[in-house]
Design brief:
The protein is of the alpha/beta class and about 325 residues long. The chain has helices at about 60-75, 90-95, 105-110, 115-120, 145-155, 170-180, 190-205, 220-225, 235-240, 250-260, 270-285, 300-310, and strands at about 50-55, 80-85, 120, 130, 160-165, 185-190, 210-220, 245-250. The protein has twelve helices and eight strands. It has an eight-stranded mixed β-sheet with strand order 3-4-2-5-1-6-7-8, sandwiched between helices.
Length: about 325
């Protein structure tokens, strides 16, 4: 199904779903899936740098970065989140770290502080850190070279994952944010405007040599998909021809968690969107079998929602 003209015919040259992330950390060599498992300091670390991007603004990049990053940290990986939005930072708010930022990447570049002083550690999961590029829009003169240097330094500090939260738009901020990444997650909502912009971004990523790209479809409303008032996740995925990382339902809990500065995935009793983000994180790590496949006793309801999100009907 194609509702808009695209420079791409058929599936993109991106990797097939099963092969996404050739640099995927082998689960047996990594801190593994035990929550809170400590990294063996003697083990060499392969760092994956993933940019979370979109064409259209406000589709959920920052929400996805905070929740996927927090999930990965809970699974025992060392994760650094980079807020590459300047002046309009909000990743710190979603993580509840807004009062703890003393130094930014600009200060590291200017030689005012060390990298570890600018990397703010989450109090709940100390293997999760946040780096803000700048607190002040006027002071923004981070170049692509700086971005690559920062990421190289973070990687040298033993991080498994670096997630870069992209600023809105596709201008210079976008180009800088994607420059150190070798993988990308494109976030879109199931709306035609967002999908067209996602397609544009996919083309730009490909042109920049970023081929490992996955799709996260956010704010899906199962009841609207069922009544044919919203495109299903499968429709969106087929239109874009990008392997699917996950589908996140529309959920008022997202707004509550944003206001509390506590990512959804930290809740004891996970909401459906929390589970969806956690599954997306597991798939990004390299565990392929996590969509919204939810264990009993919830299986009945969740399977229905899963099918509705994907636009499938069961007998
Ligand atoms: P971006 O970083 O792409 O600009 P944000 O992550 O800041 O987008 O999200 C934009 C708004 O949408 C925020 O107010 C956020 O709370 C809301 N939002 C994001 N995802 C969902 C969701 N799945 N359900 C409900 N609200 C959401
Ligand atoms: Mg944002």
């Amino acid at each position: 199904m194609t509702l808009f003209s695209s420079s791409f015919k058929g599936p993109r040259a991106f990797e097939a779903p099963g092969t996404f992330g050739s640099t995927v950390l082998n689960a047996t060599k990594t801190p593994n899936a035990e929550i809170g498992h400590e990294q063996n300091p003697l083990e060499p670390v392969t760092t994956r740098t993933i940019v979370v991007t979109s064409g259209k603004g406000g589709v959920g990049k920052t929400t996805a970065t905070a929740n996927i990053g927090m999930s990965m940290a809970r699974l025992g990986y060392k994760v650094a989140l980079i807020d590459s939005d300047i002046g309009l930072r909000n990743l710190d708010l979603l993580l509840g770290l807004e009062n703890r930022i003393l130094y930014t990447a600009m200060d590291v570049i200017d030689g005012q502080c060390r990298l570890d002083q600018a990397l703010i550690r989450d109090k709940r999961w100390k293997n999760l850190s946040l780096l803000s590029i700048s607190k002040n829009r006027q002071k923004y003169n981070v170049t692509q070279t700086h971005m690559v240097q920062l990421v190289t330094q973070i990687a040298a500090a033993g991080y498994h994952f670096i997630l870069i939260d992209c600023p809105a738009g596709i201008d210079v901020g976008f180009i800088h944010a994607i420059s150190p990444a070798s993988e990308a997650v494109i976030v879109t909502t199931p709306e035609i405007t967002a999908i067209r912009d996602a397609d544009r971004v996919a083309g730009l990523l490909e042109a920049k040599g970023i081929y490992q790209v996955k799709l996260l479809v956010n704010r899906v409303r199962a009841e609207m998909v069922q009544s044919n008032d919203m495109m299903s996740v499968r429709d969106v995925q087929e239109m874009l021809g990008i392997p699917l990382l996950g589908a996140i339902p529309e959920d008022t809990q997202v707004i509550i968690s944003t206001n509390r500065g506590e990512p959804l995935v930290l809740k004891k009793k996970l909401s459906l969107s929390g589970i969806a983000f956690e599954n997306a994180a597991r798939r990004l790590i390299g565990k392929q079998d996590y969509f919204l496949d939810l264990a009993t006793p919830y299986k009945g309801i969740f399977q229905k929602v899963h099918d509705a999100l994907l636009g499938e009907k069961r007998p």
